[in-house]
Design goal:
Blueprint lengths: L2 H14 L3 E2 L24 H5 L8 E9 L16 E10 L4 H13 L11 E6 L3 H11 L6 E4 L5 E2 L3 H4 L3 E11 L8 E13 L7 E14 H8 L9 H14 L10 H19 L8 H19 L11 H8 L10 H36 L3 E2 L1 H9 L5 H10 L3 E2 L1 H14 L13 H9 L3 E2 L6 E11 L2 E3 L1 E2 L8 E5 L1 E2 L13 E5 L2 E11 L2 E10 L2 E2 L3 E6 L1 H25 L5 E7 L2 E7 L6 H17 L3 E7 H6 L13 E7 L3 E4 L14 E10 L2 E8 H21 L8 H37 L1 E3 L2 E7 L5 H11 L6 E9 L2 E8 L1 H4 L5 H11 L3 E4 L3 E6 L5 H21 L1
Parallel strand pairs: 1-2, 4-5, 10-11, 12-17, 31-32
Antiparallel strand pairs: 2-3, 3-9, 4-7, 6-7, 7-8, 8-9, 13-14, 13-16, 13-22, 15-21, 16-20, 18-19, 18-22, 19-20, 23-24, 24-29, 25-26, 26-27, 28-29, 30-31, 32-33, 33-35, 34-35
Helix pairs in contact: 3-4, 7-8, 7-10, 8-9, 8-11, 9-11, 12-14, 16-17, 20-21, 23-24
């Protein structure tokens, strides 16, 4: 069976057992802050497992897209580790339990019409004390007792070690199924059945309390079961991943073979490019925080593998079509974003390869220092600095060091990285089952009925009050600085979602005023955040909930305009200009979209014209509730990486726009009034951002522009605004002429001062070393000094510094003959820049840098002087 066939067979089998087939959740779960990426199939069923909210079904089956990076070092080395993978799962929420889970697992694995594995090659494990599971395997399935192994809580319990070490909460024993290959190789764990039947409370003994409703959570790696069924020695040899490995080999000019020396790095390239492409497809751009940091590191690791195989040009982007080919059957929308994904990867590759080239000189100095000191180990601090400050990945440092018979201090490097991750917030919570006041409230109150599509005012009942992160029965403290949250049974307030900000307004009753300053959404609950201004508010009270109408109207204008903008962008730039995010406020919108370069002024004008043409058309805006599949078939556009419910709201504007959207909108496009694009700029690799105004704000911006033109006309004594460009050009010509005259006097002054600097300079090995502060200068003056100081016959090394608008400007220069002896201006300016909290670089003979701390200029000059002294002495001895 092919991998796609295995996935479909698994899901069809469990559908036949009454399980509801659910789509894969997104890779980044927006409403679960406890994880960076979705790590398992059970994550999307957090509320069902906790018994929170209404159960729409009690049995489910999925194939979940997952990312785990805990074992990234093993990717490509072992047979089964991946970063991105798919997890097959079947689940029960208080419905079927051990008997059915075990019987169905056996039926699927061994049934001739299903997977058809040889039963003699299967063994299982159960938890040490789980006699029930042991009995089902032995007495009902008929598995001999010598093929059922009992393991302790660290091997066969979820979470591992929970009975003894915790955490408190839902837990249970496991039963794992292993396959023994005909080749006699190592047994392979193919399926884990988790029986969540306990609530752990406190320390042992007797700390496992039976749950009133028992659950089933199983997980089987799709790639792993495919390797078993296809009879190959590694997940990377299955039909889908092997084709990716071969494409990776072609992209770097090598033929892929599992046992070849370059097999491992090509497997890592294949794994990482699949993970990166799927993440970028869902809107996660390479960056420096959270998920974006992981994507950037995976991408750079893949590029690094190619670099070390001799491919020192961008290549990873060329593998996106191969990723699309292997993923399009289960996830057909990956094809729609392929071009924009490839553009993002290409830009990041270019950037990283530039970092590698710049980092090589710093690495060369480390090697040189080790040789001088007779050391065989590069300090962990040096490798850490290269890794975090210069983007020179530690794997590259390690590989390059091996060429010089050097190692790095990995232990120290790892310790520094752990500190760095903690400080930068990349350590995440462990538990996905953490309950809070909102979870407790969901169990009793269910969800909040949203009335805001039809109304901005309604009566409602208070069902929950959250203060100091706790549920309270009443709120009495008027004017308290900390905001509190009020949950109502029904509300006209829109909770922030889909880029639209939350509503503001008031909750009132007789003698009571609660000011709502924000509304947030948590699942089906809407949380009205604000301050009690008057009276006492209690759970059970009836209040009048009133949205601030003028602000809501502005939000509706801006939100409807984002749909018009999306349509206009795709019409002007093509279908690859897909939405990557948005923020909608009162008559202000921000819209992010995929595009590889800046828009031209003509394109921006064309987009703005199209938007306003559709506004003038006054097209009808209509909404319809339909199934997600029906909506997609009808042509409704969705935002990749966004999780949609089974029933979605489709917003249509005339015949030109149809999108999935839960926001509030106008009834016709003419109500937008006017739309003005005020900026277009980059926001991430391959992503642009447009900011636009609508309605009153757009009119105000036009008036402001007209006012500025009048003011400029008066200042420049130009009666007609259309004459302003001509007048500005005249002034530029005058300024240019004045500067030229000033430069004559400046050059004469600089020449005199430079002569004085040379006369006062130290001389080392026949070379004048000038490290001086220049008062009242700028970068142009520093360059003039550098040219003057090097214009004579004597060799010169220099570093000059000046303060410009509260920051530091540095320039380093050396006579060209000295660069051949290893004395380089770029290296000097980098060392000096560290002292003033900055960085920079340039050519070997001339380089510039900047810094943040002018009080440390003397330290920078001293660092440069020391650098030149050391380099000149070394050159003299060579």
């Amino acid at each position: 069976m092919k991998t796609d066939e295995i996935r479909e067979a698994y899901l069809s089998f469990f559908e036949s057992k009454g399980c509801v087939r659910r789509p894969s959740d997104v890779l980044v779960p927006r409403e679960d802050p406890t994880v960076l990426f979705t790590p398992a199939g059970m994550n999307q069923f957090k509320n069902e497992f906790l018994g929170v909210g209404k159960l729409e079904f009690t049995r489910a089956t999925t194939c979940q897209k997952c990312i785990r990076t805990g074992d990234i070092g093993n990717v490509g080395i072992t047979a089964y580790h991946h970063t991105f993978f798919e997890m097959l799962g079947n689940f029960s929420f208080g419905d079927y339990f051990k008997k059915e889970a075990i019987h169905w697992a056996w039926e699927l694995l061994t049934g001739k019409q299903w997977f058809g594995l040889d039963p003699e090659r299967l063994t299982v494990t159960v938890y040490l004390d789980d006699d029930e599971a042991f009995g089902i395997w032995e007495k009902e399935i008929g598995l001999p007792a010598d093929r059922i192994r009992r393991d302790d809580e660290y091997e066969n319990f979820w979470p591992a070690g929970a009975p003894t070490e915790g955490p408190d909460g839902v837990c249970g024993p496991c039963s794992e199924i292993y396959y023994h290959p005909p080749s006699g190789g190592k047994e392979v764990e193919i399926w884990n059945l988790v029986f969540t039947q306990f609530n752990r409370v406190g320390n042992p003994p007797d700390n496992l309390r039976p749950l009133p409703k028992k659950n089933i959570d199983t997980g089987m790696g799709l790639e792993r079961i495919a390797s078993v069924m296809q009879g190959v020695e590694s997940n990377f040899e299955i039909d889908t991943l092997k084709s990716l490995c071969m494409a990776a080999g072609d992209s770097v000019g090598l033929k892929y073979s599992f046992d070849a020396p370059h097999g491992r790095p090509l497997r890592r390239v294949a794994d990482h490019v699949r993970a990166v492409a799927m993440c970028i497809h869902e809107g996660v751009q390479p960056g420096n925080t959270k998920q974006s940091y992981v994507v950037r590191q995976l991408l750079r690791r893949a590029v690094l593998e190619g670099y070390l195989l001799g491919k020192q040009q961008p290549f990873l982007h060329s593998l996106v079509p191969a990723v699309v080919d292997v993923m399009r059957t289960p996830y057909p929308d990956v094809a729609e974003s392929a071009e924009s994904v490839a553009n993002v990867i290409r830009e990041e590759e270019d950037h990283f390869l530039g970092i590698v080239e710049r980092g090589l000189s710093k690495f060369d100095r480390l090697v040189e220092n080790c040789r001088k000191d007779g050391a065989s180990v590069i300090p962990g601090e040096a490798a850490f600095e290269l890794h975090t400050q210069d983007g020179f990945l530690v794997e590259l440092t390690e590989t390059m060091a091996a060429r010089y018979n050097l190692k790095i201090d990995r232990e120290r490097f790892t310790a520094l990285m752990k500190q760095h991750e903690q400080l930068s917030g990349r350590v995440t919570a462990d538990s996905v089952m953490a309950e809070g006041p909102l979870d407790a409230l969901r169990k009793t109150a269910g969800g909040t009925e949203f009335l805001g599509y039809e109304a901005t005012q309604s009566s409602a009942k208070v069902v929950g009050i959250i203060a100091e992160k706790q549920l309270v029965e009443s709120l009495e403290e008027v004017g308290h600085a900390d905001a509190v949250g009020i949950v109502l049974d029904r509300t006209p307030f829109y909770g922030e979602a889909g880029g639209q900000v939350g509503d503001i307004g008031s909750l009132t009753a007789e003698g009571v005023l609660f000011e709502v300053v924000d509304t947030q959404r948590d699942g089906e609950l809407l949380l009205h955040i604000g301050h009690l201004k008057q009276g006492t508010l209690q759970v059970g009270d009836t209040v009048d909930a009133t949205v601030k109408g003028g602000r809501r109207a502005g939000i509706r204008r801006a939100h409807s305009a984002t749909h018009l903008l999306h349509h206009a962008l795709r019409q002007t730039l093509g279908p690859n200009a897909m939405q990557r995010g948005s923020k909608v406020e009162d008559d202000v919108l921000r819209f992010d979209f995929a595009h590889k370069g800046p828009m031209t002024p003509e394109e921006i004008r064309e987009v703005e014209d199209e938007i306003n043409a559709r506004i003038a058309e006054g097209a009808v805006v209509s909404t319809a509730l339909m199934g997600i599949k029906e909506a997609r078939e009808a042509g409704a556009m969705a935002l990749f990486g966004e999780k949609y419910p089974d029933k979605v709201r489709v917003v249509s504007m005339g015949e030109f726009s149809k999108e999935l959207c839960g926001g509030t909108h106008l009834s016709n496009t003419g109500q937008v009034g006017l739309c003005r694009i005020v900026s277009e700029e980059p926001v991430a690799k391959g992503v642009r951002r447009i900011v636009a105004y609508t309605g009153h704000r757009a009119i105000e911006s036009v008036r402001e522009a007209e006012g500025l033109l009048k003011e400029l006309s008066q200042v420049l004594k130009t009666p007609q605004p259309q004459d302003l460009p001509r007048r500005a050009m005249q002034l530029q010509d005058e300024v240019k002429q004045l500067r030229q005259e000033l430069a004559k006097y400046t050059r004469a002054s600089v020449a005199d001062q430079a002569a004085a600097f040379l006369q006062e300079a130290d001389e080392i090995e026949g070379v004048k070393v000038v490290c001086r502060r220049v008062e009242g200068g700028d970068r142009d003056i520093l360059r003039e000094y550098a040219d003057q100081l090097r214009s004579g016959k004597q060799d010169v090394c220099l570093l000059l510094a000046t303060e410009v608008e509260g920051k530091v400007a540095l320039i380093a220069a050396v006579s060209k003959d000295l660069t051949k002896k290893g004395v380089k201006a770029g290296d000097c300016v980098r060392e000096a820049a560290k002292a003033v909290g900055g960085g920079g670089g340039g050519r070997p003979d001339l380089a510039e840098a900047g810094g943040k701390d002018p009080s440390k200029i003397d330290d920078a000059l001293a660092a440069a002087s020391s650098f030149y002294s050391e380099k000149l002495a070394a050159a003299a001895q060579a």
